[in-house]
Structure prediction request, 357 residues.
Amino acid sequence: MIYAKITGWGKAIPPASISNDEISNIVDTNDEWITTRTGIKSRRVSHVSTAELATIASKQALACAGVDGKDIDLVLLATCTPSTMVANTASLVQKNIGASGAAACDTNAACSGFLYALQNATAQIQAGMIKKAVVVAAERMTWYVNWAKRDSAVLFGDGAGAVILEASDEPSGLMGTKTGCDTEDRDILHITNYGTDLNKYEAVGPSDLLFEGREIFKRAVTGMSIACDDVMLKANLNLDDIDVLIPHQANLRIIQAIQKKLDIEDERVMVNINHYGNTSAATIAIALCEAVEQGMIKPHANIMSAAFGAGLTWAASYIRWGERVTPIATSDYTFPNCEKTGLELVKDAVLACQNID
Prediction:
């Protein structure tokens, strides 16, 4: 049997950030209000495009794997904040990393996007269609934020993470997965004023990111827990077999609720929402990289991951790690210098939102 082994990993974390105390200068809130409700302490703001975020993460992952861009057969980008719709953003990433001739495609499953993309690329490798793939998740969620509304302004951040998949005889990589979409209440989490349903000749104003927190909480916890149970049952895994849980980083309370349902100790749960906020599709990709860096993921570790996003998409995945937990090499390709603070980067958007609101 052919497996899609993860041989490289990399991330792109923008240098500029906005702390909870700083965001209180924008909307009526404070550190205690945000922290107790979400677990978020700060979020990053990108001064580069989604395509550039994805390029940085992908180049880091390629170096980590010791793979040259020209050997890549597929670039699959998970994002709901593409730099361009036509041509797709993945095509620019493909160009930037030197993967000439590789297939390039964007996929949008919101916060579940990375796991959806991982499933897609894995299936192509297992079918013998391709041998090497870049699966990258990159988001500029702060582009969507309506800075006049507290509930959405405090939640989101920017960033990217990527992995390299290679065909292998070793039983590793994505070993089991369950994806789906609960469309019954898709309107409880959505952006209303974006897309071709709009009249492009009329002024639209700031993005209106709407969500019903309590209903999302219930559906997220239930959906991700059931999906995890399904994957573990099919993979013949017990809870004790799981070495690391990497959940979508949307809300600390949701993470803790899933952790409780799965009865997994704190030291086996990867949490970094306090540093980055919700980076949508990029949260799991970034968390996976940091779990390796922090020593949580050891050789041959069993990893369970789950996500829930707009749509309402959901996913759970069982990943078996390989032997190597250190990079073969590192890349010096990184962010251009940023002269502005996080607040300075969003200043014009904040003023525009406040004036319209």
Residues 213-234 form the longest helix (22 residues). The longest strand covers residues 158-168.
